Amino acid sequence: MALSVSGNVVIEVLQIATSRAQIHVMEEIVADDEHMLGLIRAAREAGAVSGMDVLSAQSQADHDRTFLPPLQQQLSAAQDALASLSGVAPSNWTPIEVELATLRFADDLPVALPSELVHRRPDIGAAEAQLHAASAAVGVATANLYPHFALSARIGEEGLLGGGPSETAWSLLGGLTTPVFHGGALTAQHRAAQDEYQAAFAAYRQTVLNAFSQVAASLQALGTDAESLLTQQRALDSASASLALTKQAYTAGNAGYVQVLDAQRLHQQAQLGEVQAYSQRYVDAVKLLLAAGGRVDLPTAVLFPSD
Question: Which residue has the higher pLDDT, 165 or 6?
């Protein structure tokens, strides 16, 4: 429960940072719209452009302003949710101010984790305790049931994520595939205890498999996030260059305002896309920490270093 609450707190903080970043982007876009509108109005008074250009610029500025209220509402909702998670009434809550740009990742995000890190998850601990209690009644040794191997995104591709594990994935899990029997300890007179053990074992096995699947999914997501962020950054660089050139061409009379609007739209989408890509990467890093049982002593350093 504490781990879940802690994770939700961090995710809400990230939502606040993301909303603030998106609002900042939209405010810059609106300010740029107003600047462009002023230039076009001046050009209209000089007879250099048509009234249609002025109307188009005004329409663009008005349209871009419509993005701000939903983002501000999104920010308010995240702040209220964080207040509730902190046990404080929203009316008594001092809004937290965190900027997405001030956050950063460690340089060496993990691509694989030893399964021992996942062993400390509360759900695995609870399932293991039930298994030990059930095994005591039938004399089954359970100390070495937990599998030890390196968890990676490849494990997800082998079948732990959706559709059931493949033979390769099952083979990695070793002792989890079947119960361990010792010297005929499970005899007919212990049938009730056997059934209880089998149920506890099945629950334990499924809990561990679910945990491994979540870790593999998070590792896969982080890899995808890195690619997505790189793509968004390239798209923003291209859109920024295109917008600058289009504005220059418009000023020189070599392009129409419709071309400027198209370039602005692509630039706006690229800016917001980059913010979302950054945010998603942080969220997936948090999900990895939660899937690993809240461990911060990952072998590749902390995901969110303080310095």
Answer: 6
Q: To the nearest 10°, the Cα dihedral for 57, 59, 64, 67?
A: 180
Task: Specify whether the CB–CB gap between 215 and 292 falls below 8 A.
Answer: yes
Q: Domain count of the chain?
A: 2
Last residue of a domain, one of 73, 88, 103: 103
The residue assigned the tokens 């740029």 is 32
Query: 138 in helix, strand or coil?
Result: helix
The span from the CA of 265 to the CA of 259, in Å, is: 10
Q: Where are the alpha helices (DSSP H) in the chain?
A: 2-45, 51-65, 68-85, 115-118, 122-138, 153-155, 167-173, 191-251, 257-291
pTM over 0.85: no
Q: What is the pLDDT of residues 191-214, one digit of tens each?
A: 677 788 888 888 888 888 888 888
Q: Is the same domain home to 226 and 168?
A: yes
Distance CA 34, CA 286 (A): 39
pLDDT of residue 301: 36
CA distance 302 to 257: 49
Mean pLDDT to the nearest integer, 75-88: 87
Domain co-membership, 171 together with 267: yes
